[in-house]
Amino acid sequence: MHRERFYTLSASCPDRVGIVARVSGFISAHQGWILETAFHSEQIDDGGGPGQYFMRIEIRADSLPFMLSELRERFAPIAEEFEMEWKITDSAVRKRVVILVSQQEHCLYDLLARWKSRELDIEIPCVISNHDTFRGFVEWHGIPFHHVPVSADGRASAYKEMRRIFEEARGDVMVLARYMQILPPDLCEGYPGRIINIHHSFLPSFVGARPYHQAWVKGVKLIGATCHYVTAELDQGPIIEQDVIRIDHTDTVGDMVRYGKDIEKAVLARGLRYHLEDRVLVYGNKTVVFR
Amino acid sequence: MHRERFYTLSASCPDRVGIVARVSGFISAHQGWILETAFHSEQIDDGGGPGQYFMRIEIRADSLPFMLSELRERFAPIAEEFEMEWKITDSAVRKRVVILVSQQEHCLYDLLARWKSRELDIEIPCVISNHDTFRGFVEWHGIPFHHVPVSADGRASAYKEMRRIFEEARGDVMVLARYMQILPPDLCEGYPGRIINIHHSFLPSFVGARPYHQAWVKGVKLIGATCHYVTAELDQGPIIEQDVIRIDHTDTVGDMVRYGKDIEKAVLARGLRYHLEDRVLVYGNKTVVFR
Amino acid sequence: MHRERFYTLSASCPDRVGIVARVSGFISAHQGWILETAFHSEQIDDGGGPGQYFMRIEIRADSLPFMLSELRERFAPIAEEFEMEWKITDSAVRKRVVILVSQQEHCLYDLLARWKSRELDIEIPCVISNHDTFRGFVEWHGIPFHHVPVSADGRASAYKEMRRIFEEARGDVMVLARYMQILPPDLCEGYPGRIINIHHSFLPSFVGARPYHQAWVKGVKLIGATCHYVTAELDQGPIIEQDVIRIDHTDTVGDMVRYGKDIEKAVLARGLRYHLEDRVLVYGNKTVVFR
Amino acid sequence: MHRERFYTLSASCPDRVGIVARVSGFISAHQGWILETAFHSEQIDDGGGPGQYFMRIEIRADSLPFMLSELRERFAPIAEEFEMEWKITDSAVRKRVVILVSQQEHCLYDLLARWKSRELDIEIPCVISNHDTFRGFVEWHGIPFHHVPVSADGRASAYKEMRRIFEEARGDVMVLARYMQILPPDLCEGYPGRIINIHHSFLPSFVGARPYHQAWVKGVKLIGATCHYVTAELDQGPIIEQDVIRIDHTDTVGDMVRYGKDIEKAVLARGLRYHLEDRVLVYGNKTVVFR
């Protein structure tokens, strides 16, 4: 967490000799001051190929003799040389987070508290809900609230409307803060790596509905929550963050729901932060998270 | 967590043969339906005396043939026989929690979310603060807000005023939700076991000011938070609940403050819940917590 | 953990008024000194019936005016009255634990260290293995070692031999300390609640072979271990204890195996201890664990 | 954890532009294949100076066109240019770990299990103890055992003898595996960053003797263990690793001692591994640990 404005380069490419040297040499040649670096070489499990290389570098903006656009322009040939997937973001540009919520308070209150205290330095252009429950609370914070009911026969139009709102709000990321509806595949596929969900189980255990009830039936001794990117397949997207809490035989399903809320909001907040700080690089159905 | 109305008997007394039999025999004789029981015999460390006995029993209200007042009356002779400190509370009577706050959002938002969703089934008669920052937020929730500034030369009158507000609000418990002022000894002593604080370190490490900074200087690998009853001696009261989170060398003091907030609000919420459900029995400077 | 000799009564029965009173009244009537008690009412999830009641009581042996056999005799009518499944064990009678192991050190060393230091106050009449690897180590401790190879076409006779050894050793419990063979159903069914396994995943995730590899493929952020009773269905028996450890993208399958060992031995040791101290009551496919 | 032979460069120096570029450029120029890298810029808390830079790089030995000695020779000028404290170690050279123990099994069994299974790829040239208790166990493993009694009036000669043994064994690191004696200051100062202790509390809480008893008196809700480098000041050396475990009012001091053992051996094993893999860089009284 730095106070100074900085640029964040995140990239992945096939592993080979000289990647770090080339990238850091480029930065150094322009007197770029590196605040934080992380590199990772993903070794393919069967030991076959050369693996994939991942990196994330924070550079102080004022240490460079040019602006972001020129930085991107000058870096592009290196990226091409190493066949990188890459991007450079600017800490001074707040990401725009659209929150989807149903009728549970805990994640919404938690995210708004973090936003209000500037702990999460984001814009929240709007909140969307299938219920009108939190209109007053959201609007009190000066944030527009959209009530988009999702009826059994109006799902298609509802999701079309949500998509329109998200686009109009120029949203960078959509956060399902215990939004209790399943998004249609085309919506999921339209925003790969840009829709984040919090699922109330330690995936891959207890996919789908009523995971705490499933956990109670199974008699597990810990329950958990999973923050993941949404893909077309339910609860199967790349996992960003997880955590668990201990329970015992005295805990009813209702107790688990209550404990679970604390895990859910904490895991969602951590996962979202990693995403917002460009710390998450998706690779197949897995993630590299440079915490 | 039960839906039915129930009475909670909590008591402690010198350990001896027959306590459980006598108490449970009494309940059984009146067809009392026990929902939850917990007993504990505190063995004195030097192995000398007989130790102290603690108990907590939840009895379904509608299983008894009389009201709470008569239950108390009939139980009194048993309590006297065993020299108990005891009380019986009624789940239908919401406890009145007065929240004290300064300028940090996290605990306040967290407590109000739990109150609004009925997860914490309490009354919040008012919020008191030495700043006016959260007036709008608190009042939006329909809760009275009292701004009681604490100036260097007006401390005595400020705390007198806070005491008056607490009394007028018929407060059962005062919660210091990151209230950044030290309460005067007479106030602490006036409400033993009724003022709950959240301290932002894993006590007994890092008493007093700037504990995260102290932790950074020391280079510990975990930071924590402690929920405790307030006594006249700073950060030394009986500990109700604690927890920690892992940090590493990449974390600045600012990062610790941020992580710490998540621990603080979780530990405060758990500790407060234990207190509200009469699960905490104080013994000397320690607590028995029947989770 | 008590130094004094004590009896442990553990029982379960249909819930109704007066169980605690009747049992504690019986103990008290004989001046029995209770060291530790735990009760639990399992509320059936659909809210239908009266639920099941569980209890565990430790009574100081020297406080009673009769021996264990008479205690059992006198308690039997109460047990019958309440339709209890019950037993009373004696802390002075060490349980006999037969350990099964293959070629991994960690659980074996861990269990023998606990046995040698008397932290686990048990008899180990023998160790059985499908390899001869640990003969010297086990025999150095003065414990008989049986090498029972399990070949593809000699499985039936091998398991018959193991059963014979277990019977001859008068084993109370069989511990699969990373024994890498699947026991045949008839062996599992022959000793219900007496065979304990440690599975190297957080069940129900990653049943069967190579769970760490499965975890790597899935990209989970925590890995775990599960101590459970063995039943005829693979990795599906009642769970006694579980725990997890955090991993990240830098961890290979090999790293997970290494971290996993620490979780495995800790979870196995805790689960085994709960079993040995009669803290585990099985109910359907779940457990009540009175820690 | 890599199978291939590799060199590990670890270094620290004043932070400035171009460190990563210079070092990675050097490696790349010789076609060095980087397996793992970690960099850290320690920001001084008062925001004054430029801070200190830390790095750790693993390079595949067979990717370089020269041997270790030449690698060191060629790197020396760069190290000098950046005023580095540095070293390069070889994964093929096993570190020599001398274990000191008293009368508790748990850490000794744990370390020898890890050594025997090659999880810890080290040499154990000898074990030293102030008791003769573990001679048989240690010698069974083929490891020399030295009994060096420490009597009240023979402390000086005992520690002189231990130092002689350590030197003769060409020890790289001395591990106090619950060695219950306080080393004299001159011994501590003679091997800075080479003596590792496991203290049975979550430091800085509960320095010195009987920490579990101190924890019991204080009534903390978690107990812990701390792995640290030994310095002349008791329990004040740089912390390498820590962990905690939850306790409650039912736990006696004896229970804490038992739980504590599990934390102690796990924390010691992790801390020792970090040290052996050159992942720990000491800076003042703190550590950077590149896990």
What is the average of the pLDDT values of chain A?
95
Instruction: Return residue spans of chain A where pLDDT drops below 50 for at least 5 consecutive residues.
Output: none
Bin the strand percentage of chain A.
Answer: 25-35%
Overall strand count of chain A:
13
Number of helices of chain A: 8
Annotated CATH topology of the largest domain in chain A: Rossmann fold
Supply the CATH architecture of the largest domain in chain A: 3-Layer(aba) Sandwich
Helix-and-strand structural type of chain A: alpha/beta
Gross geometry of chain A = globular
Biggest interface and residues each: B-D, 37 and 36 residues
Instruction: Please state the oligomeric state of the protein chains shown.
Output: homotetramer
Q: What share of the residues of chain A lie within helices?
A: 25-40%
Order of helices and strands of chain A: EHEEHEEHEHEHEHEHEEHEE
CATH class of the largest domain in chain A: Alpha Beta
* Rg from alpha-carbon coordinates of chain A: 21 Å
The number of domains of chain A is 2
* Major sheet of chain A: 7 strands, mixed
Could you tell me how far the N terminus lies from the C terminus of chain A, measured between alpha carbons in angstroms?
11 Å
- The CATH homologous superfamily name of the largest domain in chain A equals Formyl transferase, N-terminal domain
